[in-house]
Give the backbone structure.
Amino acid sequence: MTSGSLPNDVAGLLATFGVSAADHSGGQRVVRSPLTGETIAQVREVAPSDATTAIGRAHDAFLAWRQVPAPRRGEFVRLLGEELRANKEALGRLVTIEAGKILSEGLGEVQEMIDICDFAVGLSRQLYGLTMGSERADHRLMEQWHPVGVVGVISAFNFPVAVWSWNAALAFVCGDSVVWKPSEKTPLAALAVQALTERVIARFPEAPEGLSVLLLGGREVGEALVDDTRVPVVSATGSTAMGRIVGQRLAARFGRAILELGGNNASIVAPSADLDLALRAIAFGAMGTAGQRCTTLRRLIVHESVYDRLVSRLKRVYAAVSIGNPLDGDALVGPLIDEAAFTAMDEALSQARAAGGTVHGGERQTAGVPAGGVYVRPALVEMPAQVGPVVHETFAPILYVLKYSTLDEAIALQNGVPQGLSSSIFSTDMRETDRFTSARGSDCGIANVNMGSSGAEIGGAFGGEKETGGGRESGSDAWKAYMRRQTNAINYGHAMPLAQGVRFDI
Ligand code: UN1
């Protein structure tokens, strides 16, 4: 598969999925690998008018797909899961090359896709409605869930394929078609997934052409998707700034938004914490994916009694962590996605210093890494207070450390930022852990105990509150956002009683 050069490696990988050379060469959008900065492809992007036509195809597909029995739709997703299983190595490698995450994380991302397919297969036989006791004699009151229409998916570079699958696997079993606009930074993994999906469509008699549509393009293409009334649901993952625009435009036409935006996730380390366990979780949460997960650990709130012990160990881990090209060696931290990410990181670190912070690490790495990639040592920043850059999400490996003395204070700090995605507490004191997960504890969509903030399983609903956008994807009953609820009141008697005892005798 490898021939020594990254562009050849990529061309070889894309060929295994059946992506033709015409799809990844000769286009106007240059795709660079963050590993080396090399150009690995040039893809063709569509114009907004092409997007409108493609949405029409997806809408036609929806009209047919909604009539296919849900368990058959589940069978389609089962086959998609099989394709992903068979191509896990190649797709995981492509994700690594295009997004820069280390190989085990690239493979883990594909595993998340497989997991959500498995989940969706079971779900296809469990799209349950309810029956309620009617207040009227000889009446039945019930609800059913119907397919909603075309689901738009806008995804970010950091999870270039898994985010699509959390939405698409559910949407497919729910009877919807999917139109996907991936990040401009990661079109190749999207092309690969689209090719695998088309393979399944081709051999599944009931699957219509247009069931899964990929739109490569920039902001205008995303806007065409967001503004099209044939798209009742748009799931968008990315920055809070992007989500604010998408949310408002959708609201203006009464479209449904599933928003998964910025996180500023914190962990509290209490006096009774198992520090060995906490250290491993913190290291992965803060430095994994080079700090570029929505769930990345960005703030560590440490009790004063364990602060010095934990922070001195963390400093050693930060100074020693292996940084490098994820394709060779055993690097745990790969490159940042691009130069702009480093600039943002550097600015945040300057602001932290100006606010009285002490920065350990954070330097650009040039030795032992490919010259064209943006490699950086993760930064550990001891802060006197939760001020300045600490309340913002900087998509880079920066962990701000704060000290606390009472749990109330720690929870107030944890909740004292505009974002509300993920959180955790390290404590072996039940009173503390249960308080943290209670109504007056963490205000986040995810609140973990003795675990880090990142690395959620697909079985739970994924998403968060406040500026994170409020959307939920993936497991639990997140599927309901991909369907429309219909309430049915059925009179099987001969009288015409009105609700609430109203009389209207004509
Ligand atoms: C994201 O960062 O966009 O919980 C999603 C996690 C992953 C998903 C992250 N399962 O870290």
User: Anything to note?
Assistant: DSSP finds 15 helices and 23 strands in the chain. The radius of gyration is 24 Å. The mean pLDDT is 97.
